Sequence to fold (491 residues):
Amino acid sequence: MRPWALSAPILVLLISLPLLRPLRVPDPRMVSDGEQARLATIQAIVESHSLAIEGTSFRDTRRKIVSPADIGQPVAIHHYSDQSPMLSALLSGPYWIMHRVGLTFDNDPNWTIFWLTLLGVTLPVAGSAGLVYRMGRLFELKRPLRAGLAAAVVLGSGLISYSTVLNAHAPAAALLLAAAACLFHVIVHNEPRKAAGYFALAGVCAALAATIDLPAVVFLLMFVAVIAAFRWPIATRAAGMGLYVMGALAPLILYAALVIPITGDLRPGFLHRELAVKAEGNAETGQSSRATPASSSLALSSSVSSPTASLADSDDDTPPSAWRTALARAVRIFGSFFGEHGIFSHFPVLVLGILGVSMIMHRHWPATTKMLAGGTLAGALAVIIIYSLARPSVGDSMFATRWFVVFLPLTLFWAGAWLRRPHRQSSWIMAGVLLAFSVAASLIGATNPLPRGGFDRYTVAGALHNLVHPQLAVPTPSPLADNGGNSTQEP
Fold:
């Protein structure tokens, strides 16, 4: 391994490791509901051989649902995490090993969470820097510039922010980069006979990303078009797409086997609001009551709201006019770019990635490279529009907008096309300012991107405030309460 290739991953680890949530916030009562739900599923798989979380240490999380098969049953009501169980299933292997050697959620929860976060999130993020360095060969950059590009992609896109807590967005982004790296290898070498394994591996990585974090589904489909753009015989391209699909089948089948018994279809639990469960209940028994559809939406959203919430909401019963509805949607989309949870209000260096895509589309690059570059922006725009319109409130977006983390690193990667060309000094200074601001925002967010109560302001300011004035645990039921009920409740 060359030193330049290792420099960016090592830098990422040096930054992320001291900021891991179990080290900075050791009180389990400050763990976010999303992290609790994922930890509960990991514990249930290993200790109960089930996905039901009502018997776990994190059973009081608000991110849980009831299975349709249990509705109407007088007894034996089981609760499940409302998230995709794929990441939890993957991390159940490491936890099984830790459980065998005596490291469990019951006897040492913080170190258990630390190792799971390191293996499931931090190391994949560090590996992403190595992937970007490797992919940088496409732009024919010198090694120092490729190492700088790798560090900039991880540190300036917000990916580093989510490397310090257990979440699905960062590993999905790493898997998406891995799928793109497989396609880049085929593009650079252009040898159909040696491409079979890379197409299959790209399918595995893209499907894993999609089953771990739902927005990646857009890119799972987009990569098929990239393979179709190769200037190969039709039969060879069809074989490549077939290998890609075959590679994607295994993760998709596993996902279906995990999700369908819980929700009854392929949609993860958070898309079934009618199945949501209230967090309130008897602390001594650990039982929770099923929520009505109205309260379900409250259980699945943050307790804070955003000023960019739908303008169509009003106190009267008059239906909003078409123009007000259109205006509300436009405001939400604008807020996704420049609002309190906006992309460019946190990571303006992504402008260089967009410029890089435009340079590729106007130069004599291979059709596959153009398809991958243009597909990155098209897929990103599709995810932004879908989520902006589907979620009127962004209160549960956490730091920046967590649902967009999956495509931001791949978008910024295309800044390599901008780097390979000469620029005026003023352009370099402006690029440096954009990068410095983006890196500063990302590092501030890394101190706690998933706070217990979310953010009720511009998230960089909110994260900085939480850093200067740490949140103190209040006497409320702990997620690590024992079965005897000697616990305190979250407000």
The chain has 18 helices and four strands.
